[in-house]
Design brief:
By secondary structure, the chain is of the alpha+beta class. It folds into four domains: 90 residues, no CATH class; 49 residues; 51 residues, Roll (SH3 type barrels); 95 residues, Alpha-Beta Plaits (2-Layer Sandwich). It is 55% helix and 17% strand. The chain contains eight helices and ten strands. A five-stranded antiparallel sheet has the order 4-3-2-1-5. It has a three-stranded antiparallel sheet with strand order 6-8-7, covered by helices on one side. The chain has a two-stranded antiparallel sheet with strand order 9-10. Strand 3 and strand 4 form a beta hairpin. Helix 3 runs antiparallel to helix 4 and helix 5 packs across helix 6. It is elongated, with a radius of gyration of 36 Å.
Length: 376
C-alpha cells in the first residue's frame, strides 16, 4: 500500500495538522451558516420562518458543505506547514497562487458589492431623513413618499449588485457565464411574450409610484376594499383592513384607488334636527362647539381649519338634515370626528336641542282609525 507521506511522519505532527484543519473548517462552516441565516432572514423578512424544517435543512447543508470543502482544501497544505510531505492533495503553492490571484479578485468583488449595497442603503436612509424633516403635514406626506421610493430603490439596487457580483465570482472560478447570460436573455423574451400580466403589473406599479398616487402608511380603498397601505412593490400593493386581514392586489388589476389620507382629510356629519328647532341657533351651537374643540390641546394639532357648517342638506319625513364637516390632518379624521360627535350630543342636551325620532300617531274619527307619522 502506498504511504501517504514521502518519509516517516510523526503521529504528533499529523494529529496537530489534522486538529488545526478541523478547527478552522468548523469556524468557516459556522461563519457560512450564520451568513446564510442572515441572508435568508433578509429575504424572508420573518425571524420565525428560520425555525421551519424547510429552512433549517438548507442551512445545515451550507454548513456541512463548507466544512467538507475547507477540510479537503486545507488538510494537505496543513501537513506541508507541519513539515510533512504528502504524496497527494492540492499543494500549498498551488493554493497560494490561486489565493493571491483569483481568490484576491473574489474577495475584492465581494467587498465592493457589500460596500455598494451598504452605501446605497445609507444614502436611502439619509434621503428619507432629509425629506421627512419637520413636524408639518407636508413633511409627513414627504416622509411617506420617501419611504416608498427608498424601499423600492434599495430592493432593486441590491438585486442588481448581488446578481452582477455572483456572475463575476463564477467567472473567477472558471465557470463559463455565457450560457447564463444567454439564458437570461431568453428568459427575458419569454417574460415579454408569455408573462404579459406580470409586465402589466410592473408597469402599473412603476407609474403608480412615479405619480405618487398612494404611499406606505396611507389609508386607501382599492377595488372597494379599505385599509392601511403596508407595502408598495413593483408588482403588488399590500393592504391591511381594520380587522387585521391582509389584502394583496396585483397592480395591474387595480381598477379603482381612493386615497383617503393624501395631504388632508375631512370628517363629514349629516346631523338630523327636529323641524321645530331654529336652524341658525343650532348652527351657532355647532360653531362654538367646533371652536372649543380646536382650542383643546389634545386635538389642536390635528385640526387644520374651523368647523364648516354647510347648511341644510335635506328634508326627511321627521327631521331636517344639516351637513357639516371638519378638516384634519391625514388619518386623524376619525379620532377628531368621534370626539366631535360626543361633544355635539352633550351640547344638545345642555342647550335643550331635542334629538328627532319618528313617532306614529293614531287618530280615531267617526269610528274610523287613521294612522300617520307625526314628527317630534
Amino acid at each position: 500500500m502506498t504511504p501517504l507521506f514521502e518519509s516517516n511522519a510523526s503521529s504528533h505532527m499529523v494529529l496537530l495538522a489534522l486538529v488545526s484543519t478541523l478547527v478552522l473548517a468548523s469556524l468557516a462552516a459556522f461563519a457560512a451558516g450564520r451568513l446564510a441565516r442572515h441572508a435568508l432572514q433578509k429575504v424572508l423578512g420573518d425571524h420565525l420562518a428560520i425555525s421551519s424544517p424547510l429552512v433549517r435543512g438548507p442551512l445545515r447543508l451550507v454548513s456541512v458543505t463548507t466544512f467538507v470543502l475547507c477540510t479537503s482544501l486545507m488538510l494537505f497544505p496543513a501537513f506541508e506547514l507541519a513539515g510533512l510531505r504528502p504524496r497527494t492533495g492540492v499543494p500549498l503553492r498551488t493554493i497560494a497562487e490561486w489565493a493571491f490571484g483569483h481568490g484576491l479578485k473574489i474577495l475584492v468583488i465581494g467587498m465592493l458589492a457589500y460596500a455598494l449595497v451598504r452605501t446605497i442603503a445609507l444614502m436611502v436612509r439619509r434621503f428619507e431623513y432629509e425629506t421627512s424633516r419637520g413636524t408639518t403635514v407636508d413633511a409627513l406626506e414627504r416622509g411617506k413618499r420617501a419611504r416608498t421610493l427608498g424601499s423600492l430603490v434599495n430592493s432593486v439596487a441590491t438585486i442588481a449588485i448581488v446578481g452582477a457580483a455572483v456572475l463575476m465570482i463564477l467567472q473567477q472560478f472558471g465557470v463559463d457565464i455565457t450560457p447564463i447570460l444567454t439564458g437570461a436573455g431568453i428568459a427575458g423574451l419569454a417574460v415579454g411574450f408569455g408573462a404579459q400580466t406580470l409586465v402589466r403589473d410592473v408597469i402599473s406599479g412603476f407609474f403608480m409610484i412615479l405619480e405618487d398616487q398612494v404611499r406606505v402608511g396611507d389609508s386607501a380603498a382599492i377595488n372597494g376594499t379599505g385599509g392601511l397601505v403596508e407595502e408598495i412593490n413593483l408588482r403588488t400593493i399590500v393592504l391591511r383592513d381594520e380587522e387585521g386581514t391582509v389584502h394583496v392586489f396585483p397592480n395591474g388589476s387595480i381598477t379603482t384607488l381612493a386615497n383617503r389620507s393624501k395631504e388632508f382629510s375631512f370628517y363629514v356629519i349629516t346631523l338630523p334636527i327636529p323641524y321645530h328647532e331654529n336652524v341658525d341657533r343650532v348652527a351657532g351651537i355647532l360653531r362654538d362647539l367646533g371652536a372649543d374643540l380646536q382650542k383643546d390641546p389634545r386635538y389642536n394639532a390635528f385640526i387644520l381649519e374651523p368647523i364648516e357648517i354647510m347648511g341644510v342638506d335635506a328634508f326627511t319625513d321627521w327631521a331636517v338634515q344639516i351637513k357639516l364637516r371638519i378638516k384634519t390632518v391625514p388619518q386623524r379624521q376619525y379620532e377628531v370626528g368621534r370626539e366631535l360627535r360626543k361633544r355635539i350630543r352633550l351640547a344638545f342636551d345642555q342647550h335643550g336641542v331635542a334629538v328627532p325620532f319618528p313617532e306614529r300617531l293614531v287618530a280615531v274619527r267617526d269610528g274610523a282609525v287613521r294612522e300617520g307619522a307625526e314628527p317630534r
